[in-house]
Amino acid sequence: MKLTPHKLYEILLDHFGHQNWWPIDKEYHRENNSNPRFEIIIGAILTQNTAWSNVEKALKNLKTKNMLDIRKISNIDTETLQEMVKPSGFFNQKAKRVKNLASYLDSNYKRDLGLFFKREIKEIRAELLSINGIGPETADSIILYAGNLPIFVVDAYTKRICERIPLDTNIFYDDIQEYFEKNLSSKYPEKELTQVYNELHALIVVLAKNFCKKKPECKKCPLQKNCMFGTGSLS
To answer: Of 36, 118, 180, 217, which one's alpha carbon is 20 to 30 angstroms from that of 30?
Structure first.
């Protein structure tokens, strides 16, 4: 049976269950009356080229100083911010990117994330991509997880799995995204797509970390029977 994004989703959801991604510190935001969506935005930038465990350390530093706030990040000096986000790696670049985006949201949207996300996805995406340091994966993560809007996020794990199974798509970002969205939008009502895209992206990450690694562990993989790489047909 040739796998489609829809069948991939069903198999992975059955095997791993719901992932409830993106993780946020709800208690912190209740106590500080802050917007959890900004934590997601910061996390989407900090997770570039690093493990999530490193992002968590950087976020903990920011929360300790009560800095998960658009205005505070906009006003902080870059050197102090660099020290806080240092655990995430590439901290000089990431501090500038976080501060730059916070300043942009402060100046252009008066820190109103509801206003920022209350537009067409294409418009939000184009605007995010125009900001220095925001690429397609980061922009789409912000739109999906912080904006709660239906767009499929493609990462290196998705590309790896598409190539190994293989799925019926090229391995370029836009091609994979279009392929997944076209197939899944034909199987689920529009109101469910955000949750489906959310879950599938998270499930692919779990699959790649546990089985479809750089050096794959195919024998116990839930896709083994449906994967040409896993069956030895592709190597």
So the answer is: 118
In angstroms, rounded to a whole number, what is the distance separating the alpha carbons of residues 71 and 106?
Answer: 6
The 3 state secondary structure assigned to the chain is CCCCHHHHHHHHHHHHCCCCCCCCCHHHHHHHCCCHHHHHHHHHHHCCCCCHHHHHHHHHHHHHCCCCCHHHHHHCCHHHHHHHCHHHCCHHHHHHHHHHHHHHHHHHHCCCHHHHHCCCHHHHHHHHHCCCCCCHHHHHHHHHHHCCCCCCCCCHHHHHHHHHCCCCCCCCHHHHHHHHHHHHHCCCCHHHHHHHHHHHHHHHHHHHHHCCCCCCCCCCCCCHHHCCCCCCCCC
- pLDDT digits 0-9 by tens, 12-70: 999 999 999 999 999 999 999 999 999 999 999 999 999 999 999 999 999 999 999 99
Amino acid at 22: W
Q: What is the pLDDT of residues 110-163, one digit of tens each?
A: 999 999 999 999 999 999 999 999 999 999 999 999 999 999 999 999 999 999
Cα separation, 180 vs 187, in Å, equals: 11
**CA angle, 198 as apex, 195 and 201 as ends, to 5°?**
145
